[in-house]
C-alpha cells in the first residue's frame, strides 16, 4: 500500500467504551499540536458523567512552561447513538461540536487514543503523567498502520 492509500483508509473506533470506566482524569502524553493548545504543558482532561446524559469535559494546561499559569476550559461531550460510546461530539463553544473518536483503548482503561475521522487531530492519553515507552511504541505502531502522519506528533511535557 502507498502512503496515500493508507491515509485514505477509513478510521475505525474501538467497538465499545464503558463510560463509567472512561470518566476521570487523563494526562496528554502526545498530540498533533493545535492552535487552541499553543504553549500548553502538563495538559490534562477530566471527564465526569452528568445527570443529564452527557459528559462534562474539563481541560487544563499550564501556559508557556510546566510551572506557567493554568489555563482552563469546560465543555460537554455527547455520545453518538449506536457508536458503542466510542464516538462523541465535544462542545466547548455553542453551537460548535467537534468529533471525538476513541480509536484505541487499553483493556484496563490505562490509556486511550482519540482522533477525528479526518485524522487531523490526535491525542494519546494516559491515566498517569508518564507512559511506559514499550506501550507508547505499540500505540505508535498501530497509528502508523492506520495511516497517521507521525512526523506531526509531539510529546507533551508533563511533571
Descriptive account of the structure:
This protein is mainly beta. 14% of the residues lie in helices and 42% in strands. It is built from 3 helices and 9 strands; from the N terminus they run ααββββββββαβ. The protein has an 8-stranded antiparallel beta barrel. It is globular, with a radius of gyration of 15 Å. The chain starts with a helix and ends with a strand.
State the main characteristics:
eight-stranded antiparallel barrel, single chain, 3 helices, Lipocalin, 159 residues, mainly beta
- What is the typical, i.e. mean, pLDDT? 93
- Principal-axes shape call: globular
Class per helix and strand makeup: mainly beta
The residue ranges in which pLDDT falls below 50 over 5 or more consecutive positions are: 1-7
Determine the CATH superfamily: Calycin beta-barrel core domain
Hey, roughly how much beta strand do the residues contain? 35-45%
What is the number of E strands?
Answer: 9
What is the CATH top level name? Mainly Beta
For the report, how would you describe the main beta sheet? 8 strands, antiparallel, barrel
- How many distinct domains? 1
Helix content: 10-25%
CATH level 3 topology: Lipocalin
Write the layout of secondary structure elements.
Blueprint: H1 3-8, H2 19-22, E1 24-31, E2 40-49, E3 55-63, E4 70-79, E5 87-93, E6 96-105, E7 111-115, E8 122-126, H3 133-145, E9 154-155
Antiparallel strand pairs: 1-2, 1-8, 1-9, 2-3, 3-4, 4-5, 5-6, 6-7, 7-8
Amino acid at each position: 500500500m502507498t502512503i496515500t492509500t493508507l491515509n485514505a483508509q477509513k478510521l475505525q473506533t474501538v467497538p465499545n467504551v464503558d463510560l463509567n470506566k472512561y470518566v476521570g482524569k487523563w494526562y496528554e502524553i502526545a498530540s498533533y499540536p493545535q492552535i487552541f493548545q499553543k504553549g500548553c504543558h502538563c495538559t490534562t482532561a477530566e471527564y465526569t458523567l452528568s445527570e443529564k446524559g452527557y459528559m462534562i469535559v474539563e481541560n487544563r494546561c499550564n501556559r508557556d512552561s510546566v510551572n506557567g499559569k493554568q489555563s482552563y476550559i469546560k465543555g460537554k461531550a455527547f455520545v453518538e447513538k449506536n457508536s458503542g460510546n466510542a464516538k462523541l461530539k465535544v462542545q466547548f463553544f455553542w453551537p460548535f461540536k467537534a468529533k471525538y473518536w476513541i480509536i484505541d483503548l487499553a483493556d484496563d482503561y490505562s490509556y486511550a487514543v482519540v482522533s477525528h475521522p479526518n485524522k487531523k487531530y490526535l491525542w494519546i492519553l494516559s491515566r498517569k503523567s508518564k507512559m511506559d515507552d514499550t506501550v507508547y511504541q505499540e500505540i505508535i505502531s498501530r497509528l502508523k498502520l492506520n495511516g497517521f502522519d507521525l512526523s506531526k506528533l509531539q510529546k507533551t511535557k508533563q511533571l
